[in-house]
Specification:
Blueprint: H1 2-25, E1 33-38, E2 42-48, E3 55-57, E4 67-68, E5 70-73, E6 78-80, H2 82-86, E7 95-97, H3 109-116, E8 122-126, E9 129-135, E10 139-142, H4 144-163, E11 169-174, H5 180-192, E12 196-202, H6 203-210, E13 220-226, E14 231-239, E15 242-251, H7 256-275, H8 282-299, E16 304-313, E17 335-344, H9 345-351, H10 353-358, H11 360-369, E18 379-383, H12 390-400, H13 413-425, E19 437-438, E20 445-447
Parallel strand pairs: 1-11, 11-12, 13-18, 15-19, 15-20
Antiparallel strand pairs: 1-2, 2-3, 2-4, 5-6, 5-7, 8-9, 9-10, 13-14, 14-15, 16-17
Helix pairs in contact: 4-5, 6-13, 7-8
Bound molecules: 2-acetamido-2-deoxy-beta-D-glucopyranose (4 copies).
């Protein structure tokens, strides 16, 4: 009996091995399942290449690997991504972004009013749900999942162009703190786009997978995701080869935009010191904002950035004139100047010192909630564009006394991980596993604002 079992066992092994070897020598099968990161500000799609075991994040025709999560309605068409983003200035009422902040979320009318006050597009209350009011030739309402579906449709098309055949199955990521309803509505968005969702995984888990942490001996992984407007920190635990989210904390009002705002304020003061007046027209403020973003990006690589912005300033104040004068538009007899200013990395760090330190609040919270000492964290994974800022990496490195994991592009870590999970679901993984995450329904996120 034992002998028969052994023979059976070894023939199964032989079969598996034959299958595995055949996989190596046959022309590589095409990816059957795509991985989608439907982010708040950007979204991307990737596939796991069964042949090489590599993930390909799919680029658009110009080589861009993410598209802005923006949808713009015009008289004749619905624009998506970069095209939609360009309409933001000229068609602000019908250009919807940040839809992920609304998807599947229940609001009271007051909560919705607060949440929507910072947007130019119109958000309506419908029975506890948010809807967007669109007014082109005709007026109509669209749901957040409809906005999601237009983005997903575009990503699906990019994937189909890339693999050269229709695609109908996907794995999608969501923030770890999405509840069941938010997950369901995200799945609904995908269904509207003709995508069958095989699995929904948490963004931090996906990021850990992008670093291959599912394949190595680690127990405690801390993921710091710092984007344009929010910070999310998650503590993951590996149990039996699968990730479990142990604790979550964050700050939904901390991110790249806040760092820009500090530098912008500083530059406004410099303009005032030099020209005795503040920039007031929209175009000048817009150009200053662009220069600030460029300077911030440059300062991740260099110690100096040069701001150079032509401004048309209102005439300097006469002595005795009220200090707070908010003249709008381009004043008569405006003063054409070129504002130049050198900004050092030290200055940028000094302006944002307290904000950078605040990143540690949710980090300490998840450790305390997970009953873990900082030195028991095996790997620290950084996600989100703002984690490129050298000082932020340093704050984290000093706190943990070790290097964070930064070798994967922080903007693509999530989509890469989702594509790996898609590869597993598509059966192209050498090992027969179906999931790398243990769902956790009863976890709450602590917010520091
Ligand atoms: C809106 O009007 C334009 C022409 O002004 C027309 O081409 C387009 O089909 C109309 N769209 C709808 C949705 O009626
Ligand atoms: C989510 O969807 C599942 C499956 O369709 C359903 O059983 C569940 O009740 C839904 N939950 C919520 C909160 O909508
Ligand atoms: C950033 O760097 C680029 C390329 O080196 C340069 O063209 C640009 O002027 C720089 N911008 C700022 C604000 O430093
Ligand atoms: C600092 C660093 O790069 N740490 C780890 C990142 O993740 C890989 C696992 O894929 C480790 O091997 C590195 O040591």
């Amino acid at each position: 009996m034992a002998g028969a079992m052994a023979v059976l066992g070894s023939s199964i092994l032989a079969l598996l091995l034959a299958g595995y070897l055949a996989q190596q020598y046959l022309p590589p099968p095409k990816p059957k399942v795509i991985g989608v990161d439907l982010g708040t500000t950007y979204c991307s799609v990737g596939v796991f290449q069964p042949g090489t075991g590599k993930v390909e994040v799919i680029a658009d025709q110009v080589g861009r690997k993410s598209l802005p999560s923006v949808v713009s309605f015009t008289d004749g068409a619905i624009l998506v991504g970069y095209d939609a983003q360009e309409m933001g200035d000229t068609n602000p009422l019908n250009t919807v972004y940040d839809a992920k902040r609304f998807i599947g979320k229940s609001f009271t009318p007051e909560e919705l009013r607060d949440e929507s006050s910072r947007y130019q597009f119109k958000v309506l209350y419908n029975n506890g749900n948010a809807e967007f009011s669109i007014s082109v030739n005709e007026s109509f309402h669209v749901t957040p999942e409809y906005i999601g579906s237009r983005l997903l449709l575009e990503l699906k098309k990019m994937a189909e162009d890339y693999v050269g055949m229709p695609v109908s199955k996907a794995v999608i990521s969501v923030p770890a703190d999405f509840d069941e309803r938010q997950r369901n509505h995200t799945v609904k968005a995908a269904q509207l786009a003709g995508l069958d969702i095989l699995r929904v995984i948490n963004e931090p888990t996906a990021a850990a997978m992008a670093y291959g942490l599912h394949k190595v001996d680690v127990f405690n992984v801390l993921v710091v995701d710092l984007g344009g407007g929010t910070l999310d920190v998650s503590l993951l635990n590996k149990q039996g080869g699968m990730f479990l989210t142990r604790a979550m904390a964050g700050n939904n009002q901390l991110g790249g935009q806040d760092f820009n705002q500090r530098l912008l304020k500083y530059l406004f003061n410099r303009v005032y010191q030099r020209f005795g007046t503040l920039p007031s027209n929209k175009r000048d403020v817009h150009h200053l904002r662009q220069a600030v973003e460029a300077a911030k990006l440059n300062l991740t690589l260099t110690d100096l950035a040069l701001i150079r912005v032509p401004l048309s300033l209102p005439d300097p104040r006469q002595p005795g004139e009220a200090a707070r004068d908010s003249r709008g538009g381009e004043a008569e007899g405006s003063n054409q100047v070129v504002f130049e200013e050198t900004v050092t990395r030290d200055l940028f760090e000094e302006l944002n010192r307290d904000l950078f330190e605040k990143i540690l609040d949710p980090v300490k919270e998840v450790l305390s909630h997970g009953h873990l000492d900082r030195y028991e964290v095996d790997e620290i994974v950084l996600v989100g564009g703002s984690t490129r800022i050298p000082r932020i990496r340093q704050v984290i490195r000093e706190f943990f006394g070790k290097e964070p994991n930064t070798s994967v592009d922080p903007d693509l870590a999530v989509v890469i991980g989702v594509a790996i999970q898609a590869g597993i679901m598509g059966g192209s993984w050498p090992l027969q596993v179906s999931a790398l995450e243990i769902p956790n329904r009863h976890l709450r996120k602590t917010n520091f604002n």
